[in-house]
Prior knowledge:
The structure holds two protein chains of two kinds. Chain A has one domain: Sandwich (Immunoglobulin-like), CATH 2.60.40.
Amino acid sequence: xxxxxxxxxxxxxxxxxxxxxxxxxxxxxxxxxxxxxxxxxxxxxxxxxxxxxxxxxxxxxxxxxxxxxxxxxxxxxxxxxxxxxxxxxxxxxxxxxxxxxxxxxxxxxxxxxxxxxxxxxxxxxxxxxxxxxxxxxxxxxxxxxxxxxxxxxxx
Amino acid sequence: xxxxxxxxxxxxxxxxxxxxxxxxxxxxxxxxxxxxxxxxxxxxxxxxxxxxxxxxxxxxxxxxxxxxxxxxxxxxxxxxxxxxxxxxxxxxxxxxxxxxxxxxxxxxxxxxxxxxxxxxxxxxxxxxxxxxxx
Lengths: 155, 134
């Protein structure tokens, strides 16, 4: 009978620790999910000159969530008038504090320059930038990619 | 009647322990628990919890109820860890629910096997102890 009670008491103690531990895990997971889902991306500038291989653009990342967000990797591909013509990547390793935003100045490269030069000079170039951003919203969790894309035009 | 209630209560307590152990040693949330259990203790921990349940509820029928309750509580608690944060969020993704659901199935199957080993050992111990006292 004593052994029985001891086992029950041990289970009770372990269960109390478990309940606390699990509630903390759920809250941390909720904060991370809220931060991840709240991240907003906006194109803050885009520049390209015909004849040049360099593409520069700025990406504003806003973090309204409860956790800091660390941006570790950004990868992008440029689709010019419907054809993939270049791209690039960056490893900013920057942390965006909770409630703040950060602008990343990014550079890409046109790989298929002859294709871009063949496009009609009197029509604007139509750009589609497909990209993904690797973000870590809690150092105890794995980083997650956020895919995004935007369209713009240059003369 | 008290025996059955005690079995269910033991199952609930054991289920919480199993949920903590498996959340802490596997899945996406392993780094988020307040008290982290080393992975090497996953299987011995499950066996120990099964043993404790079996010792706390020595009657075999009631022990079976405690065992089933523990597994159900563990799986439910585990899936709730993923689901509860979504109650306060408008755009909570289905992928997180699915992930929680699939890992709770893992809790049911994996936890069930090793919990049963511990429980079986406890039944053996109980029978042995009864033999000593008789």
